[in-house]
């Protein structure tokens, strides 16, 4: 069965500020290990702060020039902006980014110290100029568990270059990396070389995100629907392996009812609703259902086919309307806001969580 954030999660939080991110406690250790080891693997849960803080730590220790890759354009821009804000500078000064044909500083200025890129952009530059010509002291490869042709080729090229350049430092970051695989991959760099692993402790469950799980019967109670009728209507009973990726109109209607319920139950208009759906078509269909309610909501779709500038609007706080962010699951790690409701559709159970 599926689940949604429960009714208490829809109420305004009593906490006025967030506690420090878990990665902050390991700042000195991370800097020390990156200096001492040619390859460092940092493993930490989503939301621990590694993507935005580790590049900042190394930049503050003057280990530039640094390049950091992200698997998605959206993450490249948002993290570059976060690091620039922390450094009290504008994007394009000492912090830049490069995605596709959009380039905001790329070590072409003496002010540039760190640049964020997609793996595809870095691979293209390595092909045209060679990694040696790019003159990086530190290469950070984030989300290495999200493997792609581009990221695998970048990793292979970086390893080859490390044989020639003994001073290059490589930082791999992931929430779910296979530590043994990366240790084996880099073990032939030298007899004395090893992959240093830093595990970021998980934050206490109630320190950053307060979450409860509601199952279908509890959702029925919230929406004042007969539990058995809801179960018969939405639970197909099919297995995950044979489930259809897209969802039907009944499930869309239920998600729509949940969004309206959350909006009516949560008084803080600045708290958003985050919805995960399995296909772009499903995102479009839910957007159509919400269209008549645009006087209440600001609806944003986060998907690789959406223009990056348009997607970045989802990161802005809206004080006049409830913000609804509808995501394809890959964008989960890129969305960092306070939410009063988070749910996603699983086709194998026919509901949300």
UniProtKB/TrEMBL annotation:
Top-level taxon of the source organism: Eukaryota
InterPro entries, per database record: DEAD/DEAH_box_helicase_dom, Helicase_ATP-bd, P-loop_NTPase
Keywords from the named record: ATP-binding, DNA-binding, Helicase, Hydrolase, Metal-binding, Nucleotide-binding, Repeat, Zinc, Zinc-finger
SMART domains: DEXDc
PROSITE patterns: HELICASE_ATP_BIND_1
Keyword S-adenosyl-L-methionine in annotation: no
One of the record's GO molecular function terms: RNA binding
Sequence ranges assigned to domain Helicase ATP-binding in this UniProt record: 31-195
Full protein name: Helicase ATP-binding domain-containing protein
Lineage of source species: Eukaryota, Viridiplantae, Streptophyta, Embryophyta, Tracheophyta
């Amino acid at each position: 069965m599926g689940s949604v954030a429960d009714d208490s999660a829809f109420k305004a939080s009593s906490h006025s500020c967030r506690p420090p991110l878990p990665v902050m406690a390991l700042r000195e250790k991370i800097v020390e290990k990156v200096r001492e080891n040619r390859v460092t693997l940092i493993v930490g849960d989503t939301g621990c702060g590694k993507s935005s803080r580790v590049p900042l730590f190394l930049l503050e220790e003057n280990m530039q020039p640094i390049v950091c890759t992200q698997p998605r354009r959206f993450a490249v821009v948002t993290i570059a902006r976060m690091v620039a804000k922390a450094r009290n500078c504008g994007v394009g000064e000492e912090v830049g980014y490069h995605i596709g044909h959009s380039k905001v500083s790329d070590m072409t200025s003496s002010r540039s110290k760190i640049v964020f890129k997609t793996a595809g952009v870095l691979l293209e530059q390595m092909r045209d100029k060679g990694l040696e010509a790019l003159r990086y002291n530190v290469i950070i490869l984030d989300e290495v568990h999200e493997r792609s042709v581009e990221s695998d080729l970048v990793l292979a090229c970086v390893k080859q270059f490390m044989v020639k350049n003994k001073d290059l430092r490589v930082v791999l970051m992931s929430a779910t990396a296979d530590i043994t695989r990366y240790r084996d991959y880099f073990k032939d760099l030298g007899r004395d070389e090893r992959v240093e692993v830093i595990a970021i402790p998980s934050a206490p469950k109630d320190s950053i995100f307060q979450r409860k799980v509601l199952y279908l019967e509890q959702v029925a109670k919230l929406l004042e629907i007969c539990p058995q009728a809801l179960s018969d209507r939405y639970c197909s009973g099919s297995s995950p392996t044979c489930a259809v990726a897209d969802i039907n109109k009944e499930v869309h209607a239920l998600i729509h009812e949940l969004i309206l319920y959350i909006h009516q139950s949560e008084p803080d208009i600045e708290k958003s609703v985050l919805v995960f759906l399995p296909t772009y078509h499903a995102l479009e269909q839910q957007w159509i259902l919400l269209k008549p309610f645009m006087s209440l909501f600001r609806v944003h779709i986060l998907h690789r086919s959406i223009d990056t500038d348009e997607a970045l609007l989802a990161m802005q706080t809206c004080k006049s309307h409830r913000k609804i962010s509808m995501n394809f699951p890959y964008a989960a790690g890129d969305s960092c806001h306070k939410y009063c409701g988070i749910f996603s559709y699983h086709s194998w159970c026919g509901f949300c969580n």
